[in-house]
Each structure stands twice: as C-alpha cells, then as structure tokens.
C-alpha cells in the first residue's frame, strides 16, 4: 500500500447493476494483489440474490473515476441474530481493499456513515488492513491454512505428513471410489445433499441451495464442484473458487460414511491435482476456529495455521453473537443435530440466510 494519496480522492457507491461500473470494479479486484473472490461484484450479487441481504459496494475514486479502493458490504438481517454491515457476507475475507492508506481511512469512514444511516448498525470487516481509529481488533478466534501446491502428484503426496498420508493411500487404493468435476444441475444437487448432511451433523443450519447455484452462475469458470462417489453415491463434495492463482475450497463436506471411506482425504487430494492442472499455485484451505477439529485435521494434512485478524465497529458497543462455540448456542446446536435431515433442510435456510 502506498502512503499518501491524491488530495481529491473521494468515496462513492457503485451501482452493481450497471455493467460498466460492475466491470470496472471487477477489473480493479482482479488486478489487485491483496484481493479475494469476496471482493468481486459476482460475490456481492450472488449473496444478495440468494439470501435477500442487500449488497453495497463503496469505492474510493479519483476525479477521473479511476477506482483506488473498494469496500464490499452486505446488510445482514436476522430476526434471531440482529443486523450488521458485513464485509463480506457469507465470506471469510473481503475487508477494505485500497491502493493508499488515505483510501483505507475514507472507506472506513464511509462504512461508519452507512451504518449510522441504517439505524446505528455494527460493522464487521473480515480481513484487510486495520482501519485505525475507534475500530476494534478481533483476533484469536480463527486460523487460516494455505500453502503452495507441489510440482506434481507424487510431490503432493509426500508433502502430506506420514500418518495422514497413510489414510489417503487407503482411499486411493479403494476401487469403489472415483471423482468427477462439473458445474451442472446434477453436481449442484449432489453437492447440496452432501453439504446439508455434513453441516446438520455439525449442528449448523444449512445455507439456501440457491446461494450455491448463484455463486456458480455468477463466477462462471472461476468456480466448480468436485464430488467423490462410492459407486453412484456422492459421499464427499466441495465447491471451489479460483482467484489469481489460488484455489479456495469453500463449501465442502462428507456424509456419515466419509470417515470410514477416507473420502474427504481423497476429495482434497484430487482437488489439489485439479487445481494444479488449472494453473493454480496456492491451495487455500480456508479458515477454521481455533481449537476445532477442522483446524487439527487441516494441520494433519500438512497446512500450518496462521492467526487471522478481523476488525469491528459499533456506535453503541453491541455486536452480533453468531459464534457457534458460544455457550448461548450450544444447546441449540445439540438439538439441531437431532433433527431429521428433511426438516433441517426445510428450516435451516430460513435461519442461515441471516447468519453470513
């Protein structure tokens, strides 16, 4: 980031439905080294269309209209969990993206102004530079996991620690397991069945099916689904985003038999090979809660954890509590795990669309 900035830098709100403005924003994101898929207009529009949470894209611009910074926001609304401006909704990143330190300050102030105008909402920034001033630093809750992809399949196998590699070899040797990659309705259907089962078993409401569909439609070739099958049955599946040489498996899971079959191990190993074939350089395993089983599993796969820092602001000090590890929600989680899957899939999206 460059210190200083043009004196006449200002903030405007872009119209995501204007093709020229949306394309200018996308071009800026795709050219910026610190950007993520969650800064893209495609993400903002997909979340808005699928969940009803309004998207807002703030831009720091020069008088010529040249974009020098962006802050994507969703106005998240939930009867159970309250409201907030979130950058970005349903994402693990997407904080302020800017060329200049002054752009960061201007975008942070514009976000506060927008939050006040909408009823003194709190703001959650996931990633990006520290806004400074009266923003809170929120750290110690999440870990990120990423590393470079190996040069070939054998090198990738050897990069996995011995104990986990032995489990993966069992899956590789299982002739009943196969994998496929696609983007059609069949892949969406099977992915959703697997993912919904997985999150129900974890005690979490599943997101609306149309969110996955909207992301695939909006991202085009920059997103796909990989499924591991035992015969014809889908047992593990993941929806992956591809951004600036980085493969980001985002929504994934397995059914109850996945552990016995080691199909999740096979899922991500095959995804590494698929990402390499696509020209990706980095495999980003995403974030996990500190102390969680997911975090331990990713580390056992050969990924070292990196602490993540988020930032928040609230005019009154109150913030949303959407932490699944919160004592307040543990009983709800235990009850959710016991719901029949059809009931969880019917009710879950109504709850989850306000959680992102």
Protein model, in words:
By secondary structure, this protein is α+β, with helices and mostly antiparallel strands. It folds into 2 domains: 10-141 and 309-320, Gcn5-related N-acetyltransferase (GNAT) (Aminopeptidase, 3-Layer(aba) Sandwich); 150-280, Aminopeptidase, CATH 3.40.630.30. It is built from 12 helices and 13 strands. The chain has helices at 19-31, 41-51, 101-117, 153-158, 162-172, 185-202, 209-219, 258-261, 263-277, 293-300, 327-337, 341-352, and strands at residues 10-14, 55-61, 67-78, 82-87, 97-98, 122-125, 136-148, 177-182, 223-230, 233-243, 246-254, 282-289, 305-313. The radius of gyration is 20 Å and the shape is globular.
Write the layout of secondary structure elements.
Blueprint: E1 10-14, H1 19-31, H2 41-51, E2 55-61, E3 67-78, E4 82-87, E5 97-98, H3 101-117, E6 122-125, E7 136-148, H4 153-158, H5 162-172, E8 177-182, H6 185-202, H7 209-219, E9 223-230, E10 233-243, E11 246-254, H8 258-261, H9 263-277, E12 282-289, H10 293-300, E13 305-313, H11 327-337, H12 341-352
Parallel strand pairs: 4-6, 11-12
Antiparallel strand pairs: 1-2, 2-3, 3-4, 3-5, 6-13, 7-12, 7-13, 8-9, 9-10, 10-11
């Amino acid at each position: 980031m460059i210190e200083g900035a043009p004196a006449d830098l200002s903030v405007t709100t872009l119209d995501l439905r204007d093709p020229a403005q949306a394309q200018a924003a996308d071009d800026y994101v795709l050219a910026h080294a610190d950007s993520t898929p969650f800064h893209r207009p495609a993400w903002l529009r997909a979340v808005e269309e699928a969940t009803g949470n309004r998207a807002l894209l703030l831009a720091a611009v020069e008088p010529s209209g040249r974009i020098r910074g962006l802050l994507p926001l969703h106005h998240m609304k939930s009867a159970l969990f309250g409201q907030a401006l979130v950058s970005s909704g349903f994402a693990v990143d997407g904080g302020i993206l800017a060329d200049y330190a002054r752009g960061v300050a201007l975008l942070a102030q514009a976000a506060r102004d927008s939050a006040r105008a909408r009823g003194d909402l709190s703001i959650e920034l996931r990633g990006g530079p520290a806004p400074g001033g009266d923003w809170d630093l929120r750290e110690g809750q999440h870990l990120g996991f990423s590393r470079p992809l190996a040069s070939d399949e054998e090198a990738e196998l050897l990069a996995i620690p011995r104990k986990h590699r032995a489990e993966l070899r069992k899956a590789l040797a299982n002739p009943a397991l196969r994998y496929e990659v696609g983007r059609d309705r069949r892949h969406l259907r099977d992915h959703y069945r697997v993912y919904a089962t997985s999150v129900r078993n974890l005690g979490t409401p599943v997101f609306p099916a149309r969110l996955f569909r909207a992301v695939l439609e909006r991202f085009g070739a920059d997103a796909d689904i990989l499924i591991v099958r035992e015969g014809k049955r889908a047992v593990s599946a993941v929806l992956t985003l591809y951004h600036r040489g980085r493969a980001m498996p985002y929504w994934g899971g397995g059914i109850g038999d996945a552990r016995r079959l080691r199909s999740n191990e096979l899922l991500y190993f095959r995804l590494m090979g698929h990402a390499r074939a696509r020209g990706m350089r980095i495999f980003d395993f995403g974030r996990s809660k500190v102390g969680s089983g997911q975090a331990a599993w990713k580390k056992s796969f050969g990924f070292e954890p990196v602490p993540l820092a988020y930032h928040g602001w609230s005019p009154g000090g109150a913030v949303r509590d959407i932490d699944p590890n919160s004592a307040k929600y543990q009983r709800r989680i235990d009850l959710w795990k016991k719901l029949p899957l059809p009931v969880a899939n019917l009710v879950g999206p109504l709850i989850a669309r306000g959680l992102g």
